[in-house]
Specification:
- With 179 residues, the protein is α+β, with helices and mostly antiparallel strands.
- The chain has a single domain, classed as Aminopeptidase.
- The chain contains five helices and eight strands.
- Strand 5, helix 3 and strand 6 form a beta-alpha-beta unit.
- It starts with 6 loop residues before the first strand and ends with a helix.
Length: 179
Amino acid sequence: MDRQPTLETDRLIIRPLEEGDREALFGIASDPAVWEQHPIHDRWRRDVFDAFFDEGMASGGALAVIDKRTDRIVGSTRYDRLSEDEGGSVEIGWTFLAPVCWGKGINPEMKRVMLDHAFRHVALVEFRVGDTNYRSRNALEAIGAERSDRYELGKYDGKRVLHLYYEITREGFAQGPLA
């Protein structure tokens, strides 16, 4: 599976992330409201954002989200953790969008085309989300993702962080709200 495809919707171009995207994305990420429910709530800080951006570049799956109307970056997302086992799976995540995009259907439009691409190659798509990130959890449930009983416990900034796993199967996608 190509984890850095160029995908297009009516309003968006989703393309491989480039080093030249760093400043435009930091312009979005520097708004603390973007991260207020996220377990790593300080990605608005330059040093924390730069580490996040560098990790995305190194992942081989990071994507920039471009508004076709303005030709400007409005966010980023990523395909990660690709597995060939049991029909294959991939994780979609690390998504953030400019607040101006919130509530306008941009996230479901983006996820629809990403899921369509993924399900040409894998049987399962997973999403990992912080347990207190209700905005992302609600968005996942709205696109038909179901919470699994898997979770991951970690630490950030001296505090415990719980990530929950959501998933969509190829069949669930074909019959779900984004079909």
